[in-house]
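Review box. Two proteins, two foldings.
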Amino acid sequence: MASNGTEENGTTDQPTTPLVETHPPRISNFSGNEPKSGDTTYELWKQEVKLLMKQSYEKEAILNAVRRSLRGEAGYAAMRLDLDASVEEVIHKLDSIYGNVDKKEELLAEFYGSRQKEDETVTSWSCRLESLMGQAVERGIVGRQDVDGMLH
């Protein structure tokens, strides 16, 4: 071994820490009520953001991804918030504009009164019903444990 702490072949005798490169998170684009090609719905966009928040990304990285993903009127709505607004504040603002604001009775009435449309596939109808149930759970109208029974 050489006197400077390296072996004769030039490598050090100390273990090296692998370099971990993290890529900035990416979120699907959301434009608002008039979705453009390649955009997603508000519900799916919000779910992506919530999933990112559960991962080990830094809050600032998530906030930057959120702001980059917003287009059109949704982008303008977020732009009106303070520059220091958190992800939670952005979601709260967008919820007030794009979130479901139906009264709980109206939401449950829509669920119970829902029928498969003539041109609707069973899969599409099922997704529509599950979406209504997801909104009811999120708003605390229905317990998560009751969803399967109600869908059956």
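Next protein.
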Amino acid sequence: MKSISVNDLAALGDVAPIVDVREDAEFAEIRVPGAQSIPLSRFVQSLAEVPASGTIYVMCAAGGRSSQATAYLEEHGYDAVNVTGGITEWHRGGHPVNRG
């Protein structure tokens, strides 16, 4: 499975599509600006919402749920990359977030 650090992801800029697989309440609390929410609890049923082309960066709180979603996407032919450390490391690293 491919993975990327939050700092390397941030260096890619706004062009990197991020899918956040945390649950709705978690996403509402804090998120990466521009990230798309597709909670892991309904991920399989919502696969049509995942961008069909290009590299997709998958994030959760720390990396566990996103690694599950990344593996699933890879099995289905997507170019998916797990974001290690998730939103926890993203925020800790001083990268921009939206709240509320």
